[in-house]
Write the structure tokens for this entry.
Amino acid sequence: MVASLVGDPARANMLTALMTGRALTATELAHQAGITPQTASSHLAKLDAGGLIEQEKQGRHRYYRLADPDVAGVLEGLAGLAARAGHMRVRTGPKDPALRRARVCYDHLAGDLGVQMLDSMKRQKLIRQHKHDIELTAQGQRFLTKALQIDAETLAHPRRPVCKACLDWSERRHHLAGTLGAALMTRFTELKWAARDATPGSRIVNFSRNGETRFAALFGDAA
Amino acid sequence: MVASLVGDPARANMLTALMTGRALTATELAHQAGITPQTASSHLAKLDAGGLIEQEKQGRHRYYRLADPDVAGVLEGLAGLAARAGHMRVRTGPKDPALRRARVCYDHLAGDLGVQMLDSMKRQKLIRQHKHDIELTAQGQRFLTKALQIDAETLAHPRRPVCKACLDWSERRHHLAGTLGAALMTRFTELKWAARDATPGSRIVNFSRNGETRFAALFGDAA
DNA sequence: ACAATGCTTCGGCTATCATCGAACTATGAA
DNA sequence: TTCATAGTTCGATGATAGCCGAAGCATTGT
């Protein structure tokens, strides 16, 4: 039963930690849950068997992430019920509206605008989706060159995919990561469409008046 | 934590029984879950404290129902995740195969054969379904008279419906309850098609060789 | 090759919690 | 009143499952 998997406190803590959408290593998750790596390993195996999480081997690390946005949805539903009962669990997303709007996830754009961008790119068939993996189309390559002077050839990297769908923490939907996601963020900064907030350590991204307009022209709801 | 409440098999069974939207008494729920009333009482108190169900006192009965449609939504979401994992419930229902096959639920037939019977009756248009309620059709009345010498007129009862869909414990699908369900079970016994197991307190129903054949002729998969 | 790191498997300990028998309360019926 | 039914509380029991120490792979780095 799935519910019993989520029911255990240690596992619930790990899942909550994964709600950020980022993939975390087994040791990091053990730390988050306050248990030893052995115990965490056992829990992670069960969560994996139950289809709640997926693992990805990378070197001597194993990265774990939520299997699916649907999982995040159900977890959010459970949290909602728990909140109503008084057992407040206040770990839901960022409260700061600016952080929800646009922020950096490592080196790429996340938040409402990040999700909106990936949606738009799929709608314009710049990006195609195969099950969980996404890839740039030929049409997408032309678009990048023409609209943003980004050469898709230079994006190849031995260890990192060009396109990767990353589960957005606040939106619970995917935004674009990978070298392309990073390149786009860099380009937006270079063009002075956007800039990281001045506050040290802040992940907020502020768009300029002009930048917001240009961004909307390329990736707006209408585009 | 809410999830741990749903995680327990017995509680999950009770909640599943309540998914029909109807309110059930504590004893009925205990029966559905295959546990004693004492244990059920403990579980119901926890579910109530967790805000998943509500109770309503009425005479010496206590009726329990899901607290909210949202609760039903979350439960459905969990079921969806469970189904996807192919991780279909392992620890539910009775272990005894005979009990799964045919048993009494109060005074009517339950288990595989009970579910099969209701399915067949719907397929033959002897019973019609309106949302959650079911009723006997004119065609069904004729069938009962002709095939089983049951007069539908005599089934009317001030406090009990003639037809009632009862969620089957082991099959998780509906079987036929109500005065008609009881009358059928009685008739099967009278005709010596079936008999309750000799063991005191046993709910198992044993069909005779002949009874199984006759039953299948009326309510078999082909019928 | 060797050491270090990340993670898993194994075995035993422990605590939690579901379960049931027995006894108690409350409502309704005779 | 007395009996029967519905439901609860209490106490004891037992099994499940989480937990950690120790040891075993696997991968990376020197």
Notes: Chain B has a mean pLDDT of 82. The CA atoms of residues 132 and 168 of chain B lie 15 Å apart.
